[in-house]
Design a protein that fits this description.
Layout: H1 2-18, H2 21-37, E1 44-45, H3 48-66, H4 73-88, H5 93-119, H6 133-152, H7 161-174, H8 177-197, H9 202-223, H10 236-259, H11 270-276, H12 296-316, H13 318-326, H14 335-351, H15 361-378, E2 380-381, H16 384-390, H17 393-428, H18 432-445, H19 450-467, H20 470-486, H21 491-503, H22 514-527, H23 532-539
Antiparallel strand pairs: 1-2
């Protein structure tokens, strides 16, 4: 159980950095394997599964039906949350402990990596394998906060003291305001629950403060090492500019939601909103990119609409409220674990106000697992009628059918990504015929993903430039057109189509006339008015 859960989280971490489908799929499979290895036959029910399923279903529906810009992340990110939740809520006590140890070891390894970067690697802020220190701190908090919260209410982790200090140092080494705010929010909620459970003691507070102080001193000591730093630290001016930038992103997202207030703009479409409205975010200039508002609540409202925000609030606010209400009714020996888990969930919910942890696969996996562990302790006994329905043959057949359909749907993006990657490698090696075969396969497997049409379009345009082949020019024009049809918010395929019809007019049977080119240029300007490539095309 432990190795499988460790593997699942490691793959989710890699996928969080790469944004690739294959690590997400393998992570989900490893989670399922971990659940199978540590399965316990539970006979209880609660409302938390309904909330998790509702949120995941809304994201999936939005991606498949509402959003003009399909993304496989919209399939796999809710899948990781859902899988981790249902696996964790059905684990035996021993399997759950093994999973917790696996998560601790992985986060400790990431923390050590981040501290090495600060001490000897030349970075001022730790981030390990992640793109930003904020993501790094969100992952570390999901292990650090429950440990500190448990210590607040009397649990002693003598064997893990060094690891806890390591995690504490990593949080300070990341120097993420969102991470520090999330840690404070999680521990503050733990203190409230500790008072309600009558478990909070002055000794626990002193121990937690000592752990944090030791981590802070270690982070300061590592920064003082004579290592050649390749970047400058954040000054007060930099922090003020960063805060102003966030406000600009918030305002842009709010304006985008008001244009589609019912169903939203579509899951993970904020990057296109930024391209269209860069004039409202001057701090990002003409080339800086982000997929995120840096406020998951506002981004959910913009992309999924009010119903999506309601489901998201259920995912973030309902568990702490449910914990607060039911905590006095639990057995005394159950309360410390419940306080620890609820504190970690609250920390990520707080972090979501200023960053984007709910769009990071490893954070979703850990959050889902913690949510499942909480549900396992808070749920009430199910009725006999409910248990009888769960064990009915009809439901088993329905589950098998749904699972088969889900597997088939989720394997498609993996197959397309593998075909495209192989095709691009063959193209780089000069094997054009093989590259054309595999790039075309990726287009056919996943026609709704604009990237594969763009890859094929660039390949065929290069062939047309090199050989002057009419068929290559036509295939390039068709690929770029198909890509723009698949995602009318992505300007790159539109620019590719314009380029082919402008540069290779003599090779096309029906080249676009000047008025059509002007119309396409107007569309490109509307989609990305400050994009350097768009401006170059307009200048021509």
């Amino acid at each position: 159980m432990g190795p499988l859960f460790f593997l699942a989280l490691a793959l989710a971490a890699v996928g969080s950095r790469l944004g690739a489908v294959t690590p997400w799929a393998l992570s989900a499979l490893a989670l399922l394997g971990a659940g199978w290895a540590g399965y316990a036959d539970g006979k209880t029910s609660s409302r938390l599964p309904i909330i998790v399923v509702l949120f995941a279903a809304l994201v999936l529906f939005n991606v498949q039906v509402v959003s003009p810009a399909y993304t496989p992340a919209g399939l796999y990110q809710p899948l990781l949350l859902l899988t981790a939740f249902f696996v964790a809520r059905r684990l035996t006590h021993r399997a759950e402990r093994d999973a917790a140890v696996a998560a601790f070891l992985l986060c400790a390894a990431l923390a050590a990596w981040g501290l090495y970067e600060v001490g000897l690697g030349g970075l001022v802020r730790a981030q390990a394998l992640f793109e930003t220190p904020a993501t790094f701190s969100a992952v570390v908090n999901l292990t650090l906060v429950p440990l500190l919260a448990a210590m607040l209410v009397g649990v002693r982790y003598r064997m893990a003291v060094a690891g806890i200090v390591l995690l504490s140092a990593a949080i300070f080494a990341a120097d993420s305001r969102g991470g520090l705010l999330a840690m404070a929010g999680g521990l503050g909620f733990a203190a409230i629950l500790g008072v309600r459970a009558r478990l909070l003691r002055a000794r626990g507070i002193v121990i937690v403060l000592a752990m944090l102080a030791a981590g802070w001193v270690l982070a300061i000591a590592l920064r003082a090492l004579p290592a050649p730093h390749t970047e400058a630290g954040l000054s007060a001016t930099d922090r003020a500019a960063s805060s102003l930038s966030r406000l600009e992103l918030f305002a842009l997202s709010w304006s985008a939601w008001k244009e589609r207030p019912i169903v939203g703009t579509g899951y993970l479409t904020y990057r296109y909103t930024l391209e269209q409205g860069r004039a409202q975010v001057p701090s990002y200039g003409t080339s800086s990119e982000t997929w995120f508002v840096h406020n998951d609540y506002l981004q959910t409202l913009q992309e999924l609409g009010p119903l999506g925000l309601l489901a998201f609030l259920g995912l973030t606010l309902f568990p702490p409220l449910l914990t607060y209400r039911r905590l006095p009714d639990l057995a005394v020996e159950q309360r410390p674990v419940v306080v620890a888990v609820a504190a970690a969930l609250a920390a990520m919910s707080v972090h979501a106000m200023v960053d984007f942890p709910f769009y990071v696969p490893i954070c979703l996996s850990l959050y889902g697992a913690l949510l499942g562990a909480l549900d396992r302790r808070l749920r009430t006994t199910a009725s006999e009628l409910t248990l009888e329905w769960r064990n009915s043959p009809l439901l088993r057949v329905a589950r098998a059918g749904v699972l088969t359909l889900v597997v088939l749907v989720l394997l498609r993006p993996v197959a397309a990504e593998a075909a495209a990657e192989w095709g691009l490698r063959k193209a780089a090696a000069g094997k054009g015929q093989v590259a054309a075969l595999w790039l075309g396969a990726a287009q056919r497997i996943e026609p709704g993903d604009w990237r594969y049409h763009w890859y094929a379009g660039r390949f065929w345009e290069a062939q047309a430039v090199e050989t002057g082949n009419r068929e290559a020019a036509a295939l390039a024009a068709n690929a770029f057109a198909a890509g723009f049809d698949a995602n009318p918010l992505e300007v790159r395929n539109l620019l590719g189509k314009i380029s082919v019809h402008r540069r290779h007019r003599q090779l096309l049977r029906d080249p676009a006339d000047p008025s059509a080119l002007q119309q396409w240029l107007a569309q490109a300007k509307a989609l990305a008015p400050l994009n350097p490539e768009v401006r170059r095309e307009l200048a021509r």
